[in-house]
Target: Actin depolymerizing protein
Amino acid sequence: MPSPSDILSDPDIASAYENVRSDKSPLTWLVLKYASATSDNLSLVQTGEGGIEEVVDVLGDDEAAYAYVRMKVGNDEYSERTKFVFVVWAGPQTKVMRKAKMSFQSGQVKQVIRTYAVEIQTSDKRELEADAVTLKLRKAMGANYDRQGTNY
Model:
């Protein structure tokens, strides 16, 4: 059974993770994919400075991947908070064996990508639309001050 250091041996992974977390870095996301269809080793395939919609463009329907995304959540500039999302992606045409291995391997990935507000495991890109993810982040944060029409 490979250890986290084996499947995550690409030194660029830890560096990209720290950059996405850093307020001083322009990077807002990273995507990890398996080196090949038969390999359990992950490599950093792409990073970016945009929103989660850029991440969705990198995820293939026939592949498994992990993504880490920095997002701003808030009702205005004064209540805005930086939150992080961990995505476990298994595209709708991902092979069954890969999906089975992912349940174990995602735990290993979490030993490197440790800090996030929400984890989203999905094979549906609609669940990764910015509005859907922001809603999940707001629910995870607890208070939601933009409910309308609620009587207390």
Observations:
- The longest strand covers residues 64-73.
- The chain has one domain: 4-138.
- DSSP finds five helices and five strands in the chain.
- Helices lie at 4-7, 11-21, 52-58, 96-109, 130-141.
